[in-house]
Specification:
Helix 5 crosses helix 7 and helix 6 runs antiparallel to helix 7. The chain is built from 7 helices and no strands. It folds into 2 domains: about 90 residues, Hypothetical Protein Yqey, Chain: A, domain1 (Orthogonal Bundle); about 50 residues, Arc Repressor Mutant, subunit A (Orthogonal Bundle), CATH 1.10.10. The chain is mainly α. The protein starts with a helix and ends with a helix. The longest helix is centred in the middle third of the chain and has 24 residues.
Length: about 150
């Protein structure tokens, strides 16, 4: 389970005195706890599952990439370096990302599975992709490819 893998990484970072990994895994665990607490009223007492954790990790990477862009504009190389290191740690827990060819094949399969015929069906296709490929593809890029495919 992904949750156990993250906890083990934190323990290993603590033993190895790897400050960046330790701080980043603590951030991940803190965010997971927040989402676990938010899931309780919905009847999910065990916490969020791996698919929600993968989505959370992707969100954390996206957030850091946006921060890097702002720090580069603000001429803050120290913060760019910190955010880049955090991205490296977070990406250890994400599955290998699909290349563009694989993404296009996945989109074709999702279009066929949902019977999508026009841009109005984009939500169905994106839902199918998220259900099957969470953590493996960048959905902002995939959204543009789906839009082009259905147009």
């Amino acid at each position: 389970m992904l949750r156990n893998e993250i906890n083990e990484a934190m323990k290993n970072a603590l033993r190895a005195k790897d400050e960046r990994t330790l701080a980043t895994t603590r951030l991940i665990i803190s965010r997971m706890r927040d989402l676990d607490i938010a899931a309780r009223p919905k009847g999910n007492a065990d916490g969020i599952g791996d698919s929600e954790i993968l989505a959370m990790l992707q969100g954390m990477v996206k957030q850091r990439r946006e921060s890097i862009a702002m720090y580069e504009k603000g001429n803050r190389p120290d913060l760019v370096k910190q955010e880049s290191e955090e991205i490296e740690v977070i990406e250890r827990f994400l599955p290998k990302q699909m290349d563009e060819t694989a993404v296009k094949e996945a989109i074709d399969k999702a279009v066929a599975a949902t019977g999508a015929a026009s841009i109005k069906d984009m939500g169905k296709v994106m839902g199918e992709l998220k259900k099957v490929y969470t953590g493996q593809m960048d959905f902002s890029k995939a959204g543009a490819l789906v839009k082009a495919r259905l147009s």
